[in-house]
């Protein structure tokens, strides 16, 4: 199975033009062209499951259409969750439609939104597939809130007795050492043993995005495709997932 984790920045692009005629001006522009380019990338990479942070749930940038629905081919399934939970930001125009999504050519058994107790971005999207579960998060920029979120993520992982793929934009501003308590508490394994940087996409210097797996998920390949459709690089991984009989 091929799985992708990618902060797509709502399809609004990156580079100097993003900040013209004023800083972060690109955030407010219509992004349907960017959405089409990201869709073409998913086709080119031939992914089975795409886990996307910073997805537009249907603002004017997408002409009122959920970006996850636009990106998912007709035969695919998708799950979406707003990322601000019950925060006051969830009631503001434009921000109210921002979230995370999982698109899949595989059948989705169930999905649910878990909410972290702290942070501005609180959504932990949980998507159950036959034989495994994906947990997708976009963690807080604040160090203290992010620490709490990682602790709560560990608790959720420990409650799920099945193969897990856990990832997203973790905003690891203090480096990969922030993951150590999570890995020790859960037995999760870092899919990228070399901890390569993922941000900014044009000249990566920081590792903000990661993918973690339970030991019963065998990582065959892990790559960071060199694309600049967002300010983050995508994480592309080919995995084999043990069946229940194999796990025993």
From TrEMBL:
Residue ranges annotated for the Endonuclease/exonuclease/phosphatase domain, each copy included: 7-232
Give the record's GO CC terms: membrane
Cross-referenced InterPro entries: Endo/exonu/phosph_ase_sf, Endo/exonuclease/phosphatase, GPI-anchor_lipid_remodeler
GO BP annotations, alphabetical order: GPI anchor biosynthetic process
- Tell whether Transmembrane is among the UniProt keywords: no
Q: Which GO terms describe its molecular function?
A: endonuclease activity
Alphabetically list the UniProt keywords.
Endonuclease, Hydrolase, Nuclease
Give the Pfam families listed for this entry: Exo_endo_phos
Under the heading Gene3D superfamilies, the entry gives: Endonuclease/exonuclease/phosphatase (3.60.10.10)
Which PANTHER family does this entry report, sorted A to Z? CALCOFLUOR WHITE HYPERSENSITIVE PROTEIN PRECURSOR, PGAP2-INTERACTING PROTEIN
Identification of the protein by name: Endonuclease/exonuclease/phosphatase family protein
Which species is listed as the source? Answer: Aminithiophilus ramosus
